[in-house]
Specification:
It contains 7 helices and no strands. It is mostly helical. The protein starts with a helix and ends with a helix.
């Protein structure tokens, strides 16, 4: 899989994402490969398990922004929905939205693992 295919599968626009990286695909590729190392997903999962919703909000917000910058729009969108649920105090919805984020995240990590 190449970077264009990864970003397209992840719901993003390759050309728009490339512009965010000043046209430098090598840097964009490097950041995509580093994404799985970010601890935010693990922090969010721990927050959900402990019902620590301020932690869930912070971690989901970080994932939302990082994913958007990398062109991983589907993950960014479901993370944004989780952030909103927490901010509105709808914790039962937040818990179910976490499962959606988790699915999108794990799928994305698999695709990143296949990145050439």
């Amino acid at each position: 899989m190449d970077l264009n295919e990864l970003i397209t599968r992840a719901g993003g626009d390759y050309e728009q994402t490339l512009r965010r990286f000043a046209g430098n695909e090598a840097i964009m590729h490097r950041f995509a490969l580093k994404f799985p190392q970010d601890p935010s997903f693990q922090e969010m999962a721990e927050g959900v398990a402990r019902k620590d919703y301020p932690l869930v909000e912070r971690a989901a917000h970080t994932i939302k922004g990082t994913a958007a910058n990398l062109g991983f729009q589907a993950l960014s969108d479901c993370s944004a929905a989780l952030v909103l649920a927490v901010r509105e105090g709808d914790y039962s919805s937040a818990d179910s939205r976490f499962e959606t984020v988790k699915g999108a995240y794990l799928e994305l990590i698999g695709w990143i693992g296949a990145l050439a």
